[in-house]
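User: I'm writing a tutorial on reading structure tokens. Could you give me a worked example: one chain, its sequence, then its tokens, then a sentence or two explaining what the tokens reveal?
Assistant: Sure. Here is the example chain.
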Amino acid sequence: MKRLRFLTAIHLFACISLLLSGCTQDKDYTQWELPEGAKLRIGRGRVEDLKFSPDGQRFAVATSVGIWLYDTETYAPHNLIAADKGGITTIAFSADSGRLAGASGHYTLSVWDARSGRLLKTFGLEKSHPEVVWEPMQVVSVAFSPDGRNLMSFARYEDTLRVWDVRTGNLLKTFRDRASPAKSAAFSPNGQTLALGCGDWEFGLVNLWNPETGEHRDILGVGQVVSTVFSPDSRKLAAVTGYDYDDRDLYVWDVHTEERLHKLVGHTGSIYALAFSANSRVAAGGDNGDTTLRMWDAHTGNLLKTFKGHTDLVRTLAFSPNGDTLASASSDSTLRLWSPETGQEKKVLMEHIDWGSDAAFSPDGEWIASVSGDDKIHLWDRKTGGLLRTLTGHTGAVTAVDVSSDGRYLASIARFPDNTLRFWNPETGELLKTISDHKGVKACAFSPDGQTLASVGRNATVQLWDVETGSLLKTFTGNDREFRAVVFSPDGQLLATGGWISEIHLWDVQTGRLLKTLPEKYGVETLAFSPGGRFLASGGGFKDPTIRLWHVPTGEKRLTLTGHAKNRNSGHTSDVYSVAFSPDGTLLASGGIDGIRLWNPNTGRALVTLTANRSSVSVVVFSSDSRTLASGESGGIFLWDVDTVLWRYK
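And here are its predicted structure tokens:
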């Protein structure tokens, strides 16, 4: 009896171990695959592609962070395959659902075990013109052959289809129409046809290639073919064609006869995303004023359903294998699951925010507000990374956010077509006031007492607003094309603005009088006063990797923070987007196109480099106790423990 119990226990342990082997992470996704030194991730990154596994058990989401793997029963994430700089742009499952292929924006094509996330193979990609450093070669389509032995990829701007041997990683074949630039590619599920969408402003066509023989034939389109997708049975091809971004038509062709079967009508804007279901339904989504998803019958061409909910560009779509779910991802920072039968929304995943373009801590440091280039403001719990609430109401992209010193108000500004400045109660999410027709505003900042808000923007205009009433208190104008940065001194007596041309303006807040200007060679993107107000840090300008420290009473430049690109702890190698002093005055943080740096503001010495060569950083901000640094970048918002980072990088 004891032996039976012992064997049963071993068997049970083995089963549990096998079950857990396909789920390598704990439930707290905010801790998964963090950059070295980070303690928390907020958000899951901008979505680039969606795919369901053929067995219907997994849902893969390619993002600027990596590939998130969801369980289709609960749609909770169970694994993350982290990516290098550039994120993952496209993904595909093998027919047996056991492998997952993905390509990054950093010239890599890889295959992973879809259950464990283990890397199996990496394929070498090279730019066609390595000497052209700006060439954004990017693999935008991948697919396995039905037997899983080959992998096919299409690289945008190279106009090239490639076929690889999955086992050896060798390049087997290359297909390219040299007579016309390629815009898109699709691979038939049966592995017998490769489609290459080509064209220019005058004509368009689809090249259909036989991957075994290399033979090809053409289907004529109407304008350049910008997107293509095969039906699951490989018998039909849907393609988007057009001559400009506002005029794109959707057609369905018979692959074998090359007959154009239908023009699918109803969409009034550009089409960016296509998907074909197993029961011959075509879904499309886009933008330019029409963010509604639509679904047609590919047999008849009839419009079947519309799906409303997204408020920004729809980036990608995918049907589940059995056709009972349509997944869509949008630049509005949501991933939505729909019922194709009813057109109703089944679930919304809110954590897939785009890059963190601006952020602000609450005064007590318990929560952080972020904006991500869409029309929403997200409030997150600093300790757990959980989403507390989302502030909605803007109708254009929110570009800046700030929180008053008493925590009672949150201010936000949004660009066209919204053009408003809004005040919110961050505790309840209530919209308190809206200041309309506020065109061209670039930045805003609360005064230290929380009673006044300064906004700056077009025509180098500074406006001071009464927070309680929303009334305009003062307006004064500087000598510049526009102001892009504004900050109050700690005592509230001075206001610093920086802009497009070559001067920092220092203003007397009470009188609006310009006190002095500080010369800048390339303009200013960001400004920050030291806690005592004696120094002002400035950064930015066109391709300017330096940060300047100014002595405010005299207007003298005291330090220039810079260095060599090859030294990990040296200065930035390109644009600086954000600077921030720690409240205790011991550190200066900067974020730029090449990562984050921490400096000693007294000596100008670079202390730490974070996420170097990983991601562009739009904003850095310290918590009120100086112990946490938040950074906004393409992977969302990262929180860093300052003491740990300084100790680790000593």
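What the tokens reveal: Helices lie at 2-21, 642-648. The longest strand covers residues 236-244.
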